[in-house]
Amino acid sequence: MASPGADSYTPRNILITGAAGFIASHVANRLIKNYPNYKIVVIDKLDYCSSLKNLLPSKSSPNFKFVKGDIASADLVNHLLVLEEIDTIMHFAAQTHVDNSFGNSFEFTNNNIYGTHVLLEACKVTRRVKRFIHVSTDEVYGETDSETDVGNPEASQLLPTNPYSATKAGAEMLVMAYHRSYGLPTITTRGNNVYGPNQFPEKLIPKFLLLAMKGLPLPIHGDGSNVRSYLYCEDVAEAFDVVLHKGVIGHVYNVGTKKERSVLDVAEDICKLFNLDPKQNIKFVDNRPFNDQRYFLDDQKLKKLGWQERTSWEEGLKITTEWYRNNPDWWGDVTAALLPHPRMTVVGNSNDDTYFVGYERKADDGNKTNLKFLIYGKSGWIGGLLGKLCKEDGIAFEYGCGRLEDRRSIIEDIRKVSPTHVFNAAGVTGRPNVDWCETHKVETIRTNVVGTLTLADICKEHGLLMVNFATGCIFEYDNDHQEGSGIGFKEEDTPNFIGSFYSKTKAMVEELLKEFENVCTLRVRMPISSDLSNPRNFITKISRCNKVVNIPNSMTVLDELLPISIEMAKRNCRGIWKFTNPGVVSHNEILEMYRDYIDPGFKWENFNLEEQAKVIVAPRSNNELDATKLKTEFPELLSIKDSIIKYVFEPNKKT
């Protein structure tokens, strides 16, 4: 344990990224055990090489909290920093296997550079973090001369030679820039190879151990002369303990050892532990595209802070071997990782993806247990009501964390949730109304058009039905559909209202969504609910206005129709639907009911469209939609007036 001194730093609330991975889990477990007064929040997206079992020692600790999530989600990161009052970040999350980087280099850029950038920007915006410890690698220095006995000091030039180390160097440049430009309190570490219990067997030592346990040959890239320095995981965890408490802001610290071993030496040592003949059990295979001969670090700077390597190679290898002997199935089926040149997918599931966070399915209850909804629009009115309905009906659901326009984050949501259906209740409608969209056109396009199309396309790729809450405010009364005629717009009619930019974007995306046969589009209009305190409720809106126009319109009573949307998902309904109650109701008729049921003294005035136009920016849509298609599918559907009385005014009636 680091002994805090007069100049030491004492954190309160620490966020550790990638904490279900190998090194970070050892660091997290150490800090949680040794510093019970520190709150440790750990985040991990549970990729193929991470496991919540690595955090089992901390599971019952009161100062431990696990969050399953991706650091590339800016909303999630900002939320966590504020909610958990984070003052310290230890950033371990990264893709680290060099072999994978030759085949999936773009994913390394996304994880290692973009993920780091999101964290740095969140620190800049929230202004809460007092220490940001960025975990890098010795590989950013590039190859060390094989003849030198002087290790790379922290001031050495960065000369990465493979896609992995290049992304780590790029992340370091961002860390440096945010320190210099914004004064972020950053510290960077660059470490040698680490080994020990819990390590995913794509790495050299656990791979060799598992192969030796099976009596299989140990594959060595090239001639095996490549030299590496190996540190035992608990020594490395102690090093981060020291850096956390004693590291100086703006500095870089090498975490290394002078004790080097060639890959061939490692293989021979493991053969000896299993009484295997190295000549018979070592197999030389093709080298990878570029394999640095040597990484060698100057480790004096960290030692001056008080850290020392404690575990000898022989002792550490013995402990590690015993652990893998006792836990051969820790990682499940790792056949692919044990290949000489593995190409593990960097977006694959952890084999214990639901180890802590899974839910237990109850006994069959109709078809509910076969459903799991992924809902976008948690903070929105309809999205919130959908979640409430699912809870009441016993339907499993989760809210999406990704932004609709961010394809990668949506794919990650689907990977984590494994939904049967996706509901899109997210969208820009304006703050507080559609007039906002007139001056925020790019933001409106990004969410209403790009985001919706991205979600539809990803759902199609994954064979998922997307229920899309759209709008009926893309029509207006015309010669063929006159006010009071009883002739409503049908699903196949072409939108004719372009008075507001909001309506333009909704009509635009609807036209494009016709190409996606996996989408069920529900055209909602002037939504109403029994919650008369909600400012988004159309009844609440007009009851708070001094003057209202008096025009009959089609409307949607959410209390009746949202449960129908869930039933439509179950029935696999697709295409376009007018999602309104049959018939129309005028504004005056609604306010008369409001007066009769809620407030006998309520009064209001009318004004015409010309007068209304003087107090709004964008014109409003007024129309009647033909709900015959929906009524045919659901014959019990009430007319708009009857539905308002049953679901809104009767429950709220003042006696």
Automatic annotation (TrEMBL):
Check the record and name the CDD domains matching this protein.
dTDP_GD_SDR_e, dTDP_HR_like_SDR_e
Cofactor(s) recorded in Swiss-Prot or TrEMBL: NAD(+); NADP(+)
Q: Name one GO molecular function term.
A: dTDP-glucose 4,6-dehydratase activity
Please give the pathway this protein is involved in.
Carbohydrate biosynthesis
Task: List UniProt keywords, sorted A-Z.
Answer: Lyase, NAD, Oxidoreductase
Domain of life assignment: Eukaryota
Q: Where is the RmlD-like substrate binding domain?
A: 372-543
Q: Note whether Oxidoreductase occurs among the keywords.
A: yes
Gene Ontology BP annotations? UDP-rhamnose biosynthetic process
User: Which EC number applies?
Assistant: 4.2.1.76
Keyword hit for Magnesium: no
Major enzyme class: lyase
> Sorted alphabetically, which PANTHER family does this protein's record hold?
DTDP-D-GLUCOSE 4,6-DEHYDRATASE-RELATED (PTHR43000)
Q: Which family does it belong to?
A: In the N-terminal section; belongs to the NAD(P)-dependent epimerase/dehydratase family. dTDP-glucose dehydratase subfamily.
Q: What is this protein called?
A: UDP-glucose 4,6-dehydratase
Organism whose genome encodes this protein: Papaver somniferum (Opium poppy)
